[in-house]
NPH3 domain (Dillenia turbinata), 599 residues
Amino acid sequence: MQCMIIQFPLISKCGKIEKLYDESQGMQEGIFSTTLEGFPGGPDIFLIVAKFCYGFRAELTPRNIVMVYCAAVYLEMTDEYGEENLLSKSDNFFHKNVLCNWKDCILAYQNCEAIVSKAAKLQILNKLLSALSMMVSTDPSLFGWPMMMYGSLQSPGGSILWNGINTGAKIRSADSDWWFGDVSYLNVALFERLIQAMESRGIRPEILAGAIMYYARKYIPGLGRWRGGQTVKTRTFASFSLTPSSNDQKVLIETITKLLPKKKGKSFCRFLLGLLRVALIIGVNSMCQDSLERRIGMQLELATLDALLIPSYSNSDTLYDTDCVERILGHFISSEPRITSFSPLSFEFEGSPSSGPLNKVAKLIDNYIAEVASDVNLKPGKVHSLAEALPESARNLHDGLYRALDIYIKAHPWLSEKEREQLCNVIDYQKLSIDACAHASQNERLPLRVVLQVLFFEQMQLRTALAGCLNILDSENPSAGHLTATNGMAGQIVKREGWVTLVRENQVLRVGMERMQSQVVELEEEFNKMKQEMKRVTKSPSSLSSPRLVAKRMGCNLLPRSLDAQTDTINSTGPTPRASLERAQSSRQLRHRRSFSFF
């Protein structure tokens, strides 16, 4: 900057100009001309300095205080060159008026953009960052700020003031996001410095993540839809005097990715997926893209299907970026070791605490494959690698995987028999439900070998379930012992959907068989009694001489004695008492045979 000194007041107040004047040899007619290289603030700030030197009132504001302070240091306007010189005045205004007020502090920090290096060297930047971090980490009701969100002034003690009188009414405590709107007016470089300063001060990561997400949604188009249904309130205390900054989108995304803390959450995961979409469109560097994919992979169980459907922005023929999803899935698997142990005593899977997220991711990937399966350009190898990426213990049932592959085979009827078999080999047919087995056994799109495998395992499940039914019925008997491990596994299979009705029908059939068996036992006992009675009758001679006694014992009623004469007359043609006894015995045996013929 070139300036011309006409009189001496400017020289007497500025040590640097005085030295330049003494060293100068180019004085002509009392006019001194020099160039001030690297003067902070430009002509506007030099005008303020000149007015101060000539006795005019210096207009110090939060917008120009940092540049005036740097200019005073640059010109060496210390008290050595005049009492209450500009450096002491600006320093006093900065510490007493700016650092203790949120709005003025934000305004002063925002206007440091042009002289960041000088302000950082003079420790002004660090003082502003420390003051802002302290006010963010402290309840704002403790300060005597004119809090706009409350609609009235408040006393330093936290009570609401009315016409300067303490009303005694306490204000509500402020939320932790009250400052998001104000810091969003900073450019990306100043915002980065502020977040780093707050992080070093110990502010909670979730609060910093909220501020970063707010800032990103304001300047990155398309991120507003990835809020997870949450509404963001715009709260600013100083926005009436702030102007938004213009940021380069690529630099902005790379900076935000670097600032994001390690945090998990549904809304945060959704935000990361939205940020990855924009990053792929803009074309950020590979380090930024890998960082985003790794962060998403660490919390993939919290992702949703619509957020995971990332369109393909490269030269690929596919509609969706399946390569990106596969990389994210790889980060999820490698982020935390997931070991599933098998207990031979209980025949149950004993999963680690991470088995829940693993099952959620498996369901998410199955739905993802089903969604992208209709793409005619999607190769079977990519579908196979996505389906096989997760371990076997990730899926308790393979119904979702079967549905996804069936949709893919239906959308790609030109696949060869070998390609369809390779896809179907991913499915574990022992983990298909009854409905899925029934559908697969009648699915004409599946290879014949696969259909035979489905039928085989369906028969095995049926046998196991029937065995489990019988074991359950035996366990209802008090005299029965404890179920074995195999019975427990069968009982679990019985509980599956579709087997409850079969169990009930078998129980009813078992009860009916027990009743019929008891009836057979009763009939056998009655027959044995009759048989013993007949033996006793045939062995007694007196019994044979008295037909009425025999008939009475056999349960027969004879005719009255008046008819005895008639029976004697036909004695030659009628049956003998022994023959009558034999006929009665044969008829009784015939009835028993008929009763046993039912069984």
About this structure: Strands lie at 2-5, 32-35, 159-162, 165-170, 341-343, 348-350. The chain has a mean pLDDT of 75. The longest strand covers residues 165-170. The radius of gyration is 48 Å.
